[in-house]
Design brief:
Elements lengths: L20 H12 L17 H15 L6 H5 L3 H15 L1
Helix pairs in contact: 1-2
Length: about 90
């Protein structure tokens, strides 16, 4: 059973925003074994590791068709920022 995000942070839940928001939030929550991840949540607040980052980026590529290197999570560790970087990659690739 996934852990409650509230056991890691006192920050209120804010729904993620962006084109791929729901899918990426679900992927982060699955990989980090959480019930949900909010748009302003940091990957590292939930004990995210480099191995978790590799898994997240692989799933983002598989499920959304957006290729992203694991370093992107280290550069943009807040979910909405990470999603924005994905949206920017898609726009640049078009």
């Amino acid at each position: 059973m996934p852990e409650s995000r509230e056991s890691f942070t006192e920050q209120p839940y804010i729904a993620p925003t962006g084109v791929h928001a729901a899918a990426v939030a679900r992927i982060w929550a699955d990989v980090l074994d959480l019930d949900r991840v909010g748009g302003m949540d940091s990957f590292f607040d939930f004990a995210g590791t480099s191995i978790n980052a590799v898994v997240v980026c692989g799933r983002v590529g598989d499920e959304l068709g957006v290729q992203v290197a694991p370093e992107a999570i280290f550069e943009r560790d807040v979910l909405n920022d990470f999603i924005a970087s994905l949206n920017n990659r898609e726009t640049a690739a078009s």
